[in-house]
Amino acid sequence: MSRRLEEMKLNSFIIKVGIAFGLFLVVLGGVGLPVILDKTQTGFRGTGMFVSVNETIREEEKQFHAAPEVLYELTPEEEEGPTAGEIYENVQVLGHLSDARFTRLMAAVTEWVSPEEGCAYCHGEEGNFASDDLYTKVVSRRMFQMTQTINSQWQDHVGNVGVTCYTCHRGQPVPANIWFEEPVDESNDAIGVGWDGGSQNRPGENVALATLPNDHFTAFLLNDNNIRLQNMDDALPQRDGDYGTIKSTEWTYGLMIHMSEGLGVNCVFCHNSRNFGAWEESPPQRVTAWHGIRMARQLNVEYLDPLQPVYPDIRLGENGDAPKANCATCHAGINKPLYGAPMANDYPALLQPGSLP
Ligand code: HEC
Ligand code: HEC
Ligand code: HEC
Ligand code: HEC
User: Fold this and answer.
1) In terms of C-beta distances under 8 Å and separation of at least 24 residues, what long-range contacts does 252-256 make, across chains too?
2) What is the pLDDT of residues 3-21, one digit of tens each?
3) Which residue from 157, 290, 338 has its CB within 8 A of the most atoms of ligand 4, so it is best to mutate?
């Protein structure tokens, strides 16, 4: 056989395989995908801006993302009468509540945070409710204040939906999604790979196992580093600043991956991919996310990080820092936590700080 003929045979074989594969994809696309994927367009036509939802997975996870029912309704009479501050000994944050409201809140908190351990998780087995001996109670008092701050000062992010302890805890004392500072990997540092003491080049779970610097939470959700790379006044990136460099691009990308994964969305949920920096072309969700970054930072700086001395060692990170929150702590993989259930309204004590008697 001549060489030319051999080549033609090979070519026609490749073409056949190609056609068969193409048909396979068409069948797969025609039969499989529409059943699984639901698409919502979120931006201009032709810019690929849509959010796809896998209905099968969503159905399986429905229970996890369902908001719990209100325990029971209170009658108007129960709203009256002496307050918790008047009845009990050591109520520093919730003292303005009527006794009935206070008791219902304690029962709800138990469901939200420690359903298996019960009241004892914060009050001990002895039933000495006024005592502050357990760290869990001291942490909880701060959690009440943090929740009030989220609901009263961050409406630009949480709207009128708000959050309760359940948004983060989901029936567990330790929320599923928390973060700590990444310890520096000395071995990487010694051989000089990666930025900042080798926090790069170790495939981190935070960054979808990419070898990006993986302590972007400390950089952006605890410290206030610049997230902007484009929109610079200068035509060329600055060499010495932390702005527009490859280094800052990698850090930013790490955070963006977390935000996408934490909300279960794609980059185009918040960006028009023809210009990631342009706010005029971004969907409104990006503005909500902008506030979310500032909110998460405030929660970590003012509430969660300072609790460090209160926690037992077993709860602290490798660097000895306190557990902290990121987007996934509330969102748990969907764009609206608990599918946007407005559960905070049922517990007015969580909506704003109360004036104590
Ligand atoms: C997740 C932690 C947590 C759980 C669980 C919990 N509590 Fe509390 N409880 C607190 C905190 C925090 C305070 C103090 C609130 C304040 O200072 O405003 C408190 C205060 C109290 C007080 C006031 C005691 C006093 O004399 O000062 C009573 C009574 C009480 N809780 C009852 C209960 C009961 C009953 C349960 C179970 C149904 C329960 N709590 C479950 C955190 C918890
Ligand atoms: C924004 C998310 C968020 C909200 C809302 C929230 N928490 Fe927390 N909570 C956390 C994080 C993060 C931790 C640290 C986890 C750890 O202890 O390891 C924590 C820890 C705790 C702990 C200590 C658990 C332990 O065993 O170490 C208690 C108790 C607690 N929270 C109670 C509450 C109560 C009560 C509320 C509602 C008033 C609440 N939390 C609301 C995020 C939240
Ligand atoms: C949930 C919304 C959201 C998602 C999802 C998201 N981003 Fe962002 N992105 C933002 C916000 C908000 C900012 C601006 C942050 C700031 O300035 O504080 C930003 C900033 C950026 C910037 C810097 C723009 C500038 O002005 O220099 C880039 C680049 C970027 N994102 C890329 C991505 C990529 C790539 C993805 C997907 C992996 C992604 N983003 C996913 C919200 C999002
Ligand atoms: C304290 C809990 C909490 C944290 C932490 C949090 N969010 Fe949210 N987020 C919410 C709530 C509640 C809503 C409002 C949902 C609604 O309106 O139904 C929301 C809404 C959003 C929306 C709008 C979704 C839509 O479909 O319109 C975006 C985008 C968003 N969050 C991004 C983020 C990002 C990015 C972070 C981390 C930097 C973050 N969130 C951290 C609670 C939180």
Assistant:
1) 252/216, 252/227, 253/207, 253/212, 254/204, 254/206, 254/207, 254/210, 254/212, 254/213, 254/214, 254/216, 255/216, 255/217, 255/219, 255/220, 255/221, 255/227
2) 777 777 777 777 787 788 7
3) 157
